[in-house]
């Protein structure tokens, strides 16, 4: 018997307010979220797997220079782009993750190849890139990943030891640049996928929560699928994605109860900022965040799609 399917996605969280986005940018972000949502929804509605849907939705966001992932990735300390991504199957608990990869057009596709065509879960840097070439994935030049906005962000910081999470003109304007998608398909299977360009001016090959299974990404058919966006160091320390799943499995909390407890209580008390998107095995959607805003969208079968940016 087929189940109602559900999909949610995000394009990052942080200090995102109406005052900081022009009407044109507001429309551009919402249109981009709607496009990725439609791609994932079409796949789910035609019987494709949750794993296929989250990968395709994230590819759409990676290809969009508005988001800090794939083409829109920020510059690191050396003026390069180092990208992280991960994907997980809730049915088998199989996962694939990559960190610090350069010039790979779609890091989420590489994470998927690790899941499907390797005996490993986590590959990084040159080894991950070598695997990408072996799998025939598309590479792009540095120019492909160049965006004027990201370059100007980096220019403000390049001669300092400061790093910023998707830093823009004002220090208060913090954006945690990550994209992600979660889905429940008609067969009752869950999946999650997350991708990021990391932090502007990041040094020392810094890696955040995005590629860390259980921290930034997690999926388990018994509980939920989760993709996180926020200050990665806190999400790693709090094992955010897995903690929400555990609260459901071991304490019997609903998805929304578990997600609210972790994001608004446990994470906030640590000083961590950000949010998550999640879908439960029953098709319940949760998208809590403790920042000013979060680019987010969801679509449950039989309901109208939902796209939002701000708190209210």
Automatic annotation (TrEMBL):
GO molecular function list: hydrolase activity, acting on carbon-nitrogen (but not peptide) bonds, in linear amides; peptidase activity
Protein name, per record: Isoaspartyl peptidase
SUPFAM superfamilies listed in its UniProt record: N-terminal nucleophile aminohydrolases (Ntn hydrolases)
Superkingdom of the source species: Bacteria
CDD domains in the cross-refs: Asparaginase_2
Keywords: Autocatalytic cleavage, Hydrolase, Protease
Gene Ontology biological process terms in this record: proteolysis
Pfam families reported in the protein's UniProt record: Asparaginase_2 (PF01112)
Entry binding sites for substrate: 206-209, 229-232
Active-site residue numbers: 178
Site positions per UniProt: Cleavage: 177-178
The keyword Protease is assigned to this record: yes
UniProt-listed Gene3D superfamilies: (Glycosyl)asparaginase (3.60.20.30)
Native source organism of the sequence: Nibribacter ruber
């Amino acid at each position: 018997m087929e189940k109602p399917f559900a999909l949610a996605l995000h394009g990052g969280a942080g200090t995102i307010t109406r005052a900081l986005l022009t009407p044109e940018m507001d429309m551009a972000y919402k249109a981009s979220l709607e496009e990725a949502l439609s791609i994932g929804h079409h796949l789910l509605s035609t019987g494709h797997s949750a794993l296929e849907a989250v990968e395709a939705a994230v590819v759409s966001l990676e290809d969009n220079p508005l988001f800090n992932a794939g083409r829109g990735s920020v510059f690191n300390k050396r003026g390069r782009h180092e990208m992280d991504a991960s994907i997980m199957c809730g049915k088998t608990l199989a996962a694939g993750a990559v960190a610090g990869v350069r010039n790979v057009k779609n890091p989420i596709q590489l994470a998927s190849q690790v899941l499907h065509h390797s005996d490993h879960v986590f590959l990084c840097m040159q080894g991950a890139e070598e695997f990408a070439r072996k799998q025939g994935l598309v590479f792009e030049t540095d120019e492909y990943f160049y965006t004027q906005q990201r370059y100007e962000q980096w220019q403000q910081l390049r001669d300092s030891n400061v790093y910023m999470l998707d830093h823009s003109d004002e220090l208060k304007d913090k954006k945690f640049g990550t994209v992600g998608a979660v889905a429940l398909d008609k067969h009752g299977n869950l999946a999650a996928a997350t991708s990021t360009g990391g932090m502007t001016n990041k040094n020392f090959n810094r890696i955040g929560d995005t590629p860390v299974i259980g921290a930034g990404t997690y999926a388990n058919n018994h509980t939920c699928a989760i993709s996180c966006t926020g200050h990665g160091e806190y999400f790693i320390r709090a094992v955010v994605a897995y903690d929400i799943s555990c609260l459901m499995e071991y304490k019997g909390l609903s998805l929304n109860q578990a997600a609210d407890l972790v994001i608004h209580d446990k994470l906030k008390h640590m000083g961590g900022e950000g949010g998550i998107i999640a879908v439960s095995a029953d098709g319940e959607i949760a998208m809590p965040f403790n920042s000013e805003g979060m680019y987010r969208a969801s679509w449950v079968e039989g309901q109208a799609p939902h796209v939002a940016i701000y708190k209210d």
